[in-house]
TrEMBL record:
Residues 7-127 form the Glycosyltransferase 2-like domain. Coiled coil: none annotated. GO terms for molecular function: glycosyltransferase activity. It comes from the Bacteria. PANTHER family: GALACTOFURANOSYLTRANSFERASE GLFT2, RHAMNOSYLTRANSFERASE WBBL. Signal peptide: none annotated. This is Glycosyltransferase. Belongs to the glycosyltransferase 2 family. It comes from SAR86 cluster bacterium. InterPro entries: Glyco_trans_2-like, Nucleotide-diphossugar_trans. Keywords: Glycosyltransferase, Transferase.
Amino acid sequence: MKVLAAVVTHNRAVLLDRCLNKILDQTRLPDQILVINNGCTDDTNMVLDRYPVEKIEQENLGSAGGWNSAITFCLEKDYDFIWLMDDDGYPDKNALNVLCNQFEDKFSCLSSVIVDENNHNQFVFPYPLIKKNGVPNTLKFWKKYNSINALPLSDNFYYPYAHLFNGALIRVESIKRIGNVDIGYFMYGDEVDFNFRLLSDGIVASTPMAKHFHPNVMEREYSLLRIYYNMKNNLINYRKHYDKPLLRSILGPLVILLRVSRANGLLYAFSLIIGKNKKIFFKSINRGFQEKLGKDFPH
């Protein structure tokens, strides 16, 4: 099996350096490494010059545009799989070897589990309770699996859900059938849409035998940009892919406000509904209900 490792990066040269170093330290090396320079203005090119990688430089097209370019490159070449990851995480030494060995015909995607770089049993992104059709259970949205030890496995090695794109190995034939990442999402939600489309072609799963280490992003503050695209694109995906879209659309803004209050403080959360940021927040909700994709953050 021929594997392309692809990394999308934007102004995180130090973390990119670490990521590439870990890719080249794999017990099973990828056949080629591609880096999408997504409008970087830092020392990214200096880092890339030190590594034997293919690179594509483009304007900042968001995460969606980065993944789309990586997959387009892959489809133009003779690869069987693409191994996708962001620049801020990095794979365990045996990750690709495990994914290649455990990948079965029933999968369209098999991913590493994403664990805290300082606590290798703790998930950075908790795994939801999944229904038989592979969709998170709306009525039990609060129930999450937060650690490897708690995760129930099918066939003793995988859980039927994946958080893309952090060490996800994806079958190229599946991509040919379902299409590329939708660049209209720009950022946030593109991975959810792609996940559901992959699910239509096979099982999308994660295996705890392969680990992808990642900073604890749950501690990061929310920028207005992140809030806007997260809210808008979540609402679009609720109606496009999920069951109980109305219930999810009602709960969605409340969940965002709760997360923002925890990360940024209660006053900042209030600014989204009654303060200086309310126009941006309510525009994101309005655009979401109108299902308006695109790079449209108000300036």
